[in-house]
Design goal:
The chain has 185 residues and is mostly helical. It contains five helices and no strands. The chain has one domain (4-182). The chain has helices at residues 9-46, 61-74, 81-107, 127-154, 157-182.
Amino acid sequence: MHFIKNINENEIHLHGIKRFTKYMLVFFLLSVFGWIYEEIYFLIASHEFVNRGFFYGPYLPVYGFGCILITFFIKKFKNKPLLFFILTMLITGVLEYLVGFVLEKVWHKHLWDYSNEFLNINGFICFKSVISFALGGMILIYIIEPLINNFTNKISKKHDIIINIFIPFILIIDFIFSIVYKHPL
């Protein structure tokens, strides 16, 4: 137990804040990236700009949640790329299916439809989508997440606190406005 007395409580607290900041940035930045990715994809495919998201802001939280799940639960398999890829397909496929199902059943919104795609399940997921999300998961774990770690290790505690208050505040306000005005129950 002699090693325990060498650990400073402030270091443990600061490590927890840094970790939360990392997850907050992963969630928010990848939600924004997901929105940009989809806007570009559908702008090319349909030649029109349409906010594909549920929210007013330029983010798709399903991407952020998927990235958090990947980072939190299956990052430990990154040294086994094939297993990591398969697990990422599974976790993102289940998430996309559940989100699509809930959006349809609760808000009667069908924000995407893979009905005409190869190996689709009720139009909510398809082979192409889970493959692309698995590739995105690999980019996340091997490239983006290390950059975010490096950034969060360099910023001050003050900036950690600002990030950890500002991002949830913006998302909560947008969620409330989206529920009340854009997608009333």
